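Side project, low priority. Logging it here so it doesn't get lost.
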Amino acid sequence: MTAKLDPMAAAPDLMKTWLRTSMAVAGSLDPTLVALVEIRASQINGCANCINLHAAQAREKGETEQRIYLLSAWREAPCYTERERAALGWTEALTRLSEGQALESAYQVLEAEFSEAEQVKLTLMINVINGWNRIAVGFGQFVDPAVVKSAMKAVAA
């Protein structure tokens, strides 16, 4: 994959705002849950950049290799909690919205595990990662996780 452009260089103010928003949304939820959602949505969207980045970040935060590897088959894997399963089901339903996934059944499971405020936070997180997937895939990005970490520190300062 060849990068088409660098969004941070092309529209720095908007991209910094997007990054700050992304960080705020991610910071409103449990980091383990965020990592699972980021990786699963990125798998569905075929975003190698985001799979690589978020798997590396998940490992740094203590996520196990087994749980990272099994995400694509989370329904059959016994290592996820009911809350994580609800989040993953909601992630798939919203990420595959145009495919007519079972939104109502995913919402019922979500509603049983998450408060209304948490449902909104999770939905925003799913929107954020889907947005990043589209930026990365659309512009052919594959960024070293260390570069992203550095950019996040700069924007947070």
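Brief comment: Residues 11-156 form a domain with the AhpD-like fold (CATH 1.20.1290.10).
Revisit when time allows.
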